[in-house]
Amino acid sequence: MSQSARKSGICYIIGAGPGDPGLLTLRGRECLEGAEVVFYDYLCNPQLLRHAPGNAQSIFVGKNSKGRCLKQEEINALLVRETAAGKIVCRLKGGDPYVFGRGGEEALALADAGLSFEVVPGISSAVAAPAFAGIPVTHRGLTSSFTVITGHEDPTKPQRGIDWKQVAQIPGTKVILMGVGRMREIAGALIEAGMPSRTPIALVCWGTYGRQKTVAGTLATIVEQVEAAVCSPPGVTVIGEVVNLREQLDWFESRPLFGKRIVVTRTREQASELSRRLRQKGADVLELPTIRFAPPEDTQPLQRAIRNIHEYDWIVFTSSNAVETFLREFLAIHRDIRKLGTARIAAVGPATVSALRRFHLEVNLQPEEYTAGKMAEAFAAQGKAAGMKILLPRGDLARKTLTGELAGQGAICDEVETYRTVPEIDDLSDSRYDLLQGGADWITFASSSAAENFHALGLPLEHFTIKYASIGPLTSEKMRQLGCSVDVEAKEHTIPGLVEAIVAVETGD
Predict the structure, then answer these.
(1) For the domain bounded by 294-421, which CATH number is listed?
(2) pTM across the whole model
(3) Taking the domains of the chain in order of start, what are their residue ranges?
(4) 473-507 b/e (C-beta count within 10 Å ≥ 16 → b)
């Protein structure tokens, strides 16, 4: 962001896309990365908030769990107030801000106040939802145009802005936004206006999410089909011959985890990889972080070890978190990765190795199985521990077993705490409320601490049928101690392994 923008304040009105967080534009992400205040609403995927700085203020301006809903005038006033205060403000709006998103009203409020703003277009649900349902809004040989119409207006009221007779006569595909609750009136109005009752039509609810539901039929049958399917907003209705291509072009709803709601309990920073892999399999992901990482209460032992790094023969990492936290502190002190000197590096697990490679560091010793116990065996097999001085950067909850076994092999071991695992208190996106309302098919645990802190929430989920997935034996052990079933445990104790374990159960492989 420019210095002038920082001094005077600016508001970025950003199209957040239709729901899938991967459909946010690069410009939208760039603006979020510099945000000081973020306003978002019901149609914005809360996972997009991770692109904002950790100290940015996130303000929900949609309808919350208590039924409170801000009026548009109140939202306008908030945007003006925060921008006028000289802040970098981001307003996330579902889809595209100017496609039935009332973004124009917010931009006008900022303009009338003499404030700077920028509109960042987004991918509209008008094209994205049909695409995820296997329906192209245009197709050579069928139609070369499409019309987007709001369905939020009641077709039965005496005076209305939409001429449904004219809509019925327009050639090409018709796309209606926000018309789920008025399907009977819309279909009836179009038939009455002369559109053939056999015209293909499809309703796509929650398009691009794993909870997406598509109902296809004709103008004559769609009302009963939608009512039987119990569809809920938001929804996009597509009318025209292109709907018939769905049988051939449906690529999203055939994925192995499609329609499965899966809870991710990792930290906000860590959740992205697991969430992304689950979404790639078609899952509807609900992020409910139960833990977060905090600096050590006493950083002196860590800093002392870093300053004396030349004394160590080996540095042993057992998690990617330890890599990230240790090396960030290391570079803050030494500013040059070469200051690691001749110390060799050992690592447990591919995620830890990947984290080291992001710092351009190679691994000298890695056990085939991803446990600390196997690391001790790897040292013993090669006789590499005796007489060696070994540094083990670790979290506060890490087990002491590895240190004891290496010391038993004749090594001089120093453990230093690089981070603390603490309970996550904030629930910015009402994920706990969503879980209590709708339940889930799976809850995943990628660490013992995540399982323990989720259990501490005491959420009453007994009336739901939920399966629980564990990343490995230590996590499974903790889950059982807490009285939680372990319905599947990853054979490979990694995030990809956890996802594949769930897929295997769901597909019967």
Answers:
(1) 3.40.50.10090
(2) 0.82
(3) 7-123, 127-249, 261-290+424-507, 294-421
(4) ebbbebbeeeebebbbbbebbbbebbbbbbbeebe
